[in-house]
Amino acid sequence: MLVVNTEYIPGYEVVEVKGLVQGNTIRAKHVGRDIGASLKNLVGGELKGYTELLTEARREALERMLSQAEQLGANAVVNVRFTTSSIAGGAAELYAYGTAVIARADGAPASEPSTPSI
Known about the structure:
- By secondary structure, the chain is an alpha+beta fold.
- It has one domain: Hypothetical protein apc22750. Chain B (Translation Initiation Factor IF3), CATH 3.30.110.
- Helix content is about 30%, strand content about 40%.
- The chain contains 2 helices and 4 strands.
- It has helices at about 30-45, 50-70, and strands at about 1-5, 10-30, 75-90, 90-105.
- It is elongated, with a radius of gyration of 18 Å.
- The termini are close together.
């Protein structure tokens, strides 16, 4: 499935809009990561534990969004966005959303939408 953060896909025509799709996950901080982050705050630098946590959260939210798009019969998701929000002390939500569509390669027969791949 093709996933883009633009409103259109170069070389493809959107032939049908299936609707809004979304995926989210809520993650809590790990005590070990908190201790490491506190120490890193003293000297500066990347908080690798949190980077890994957010990378995992983005991946999971994206997978959930794509699963919803597949259930709708879409072969692409356009205008994809990510957002985060604080839920409670030590927990945050990562939310992915976009528009599920059926896209056809320019010049492909109208009766056969192509299935783009990443």
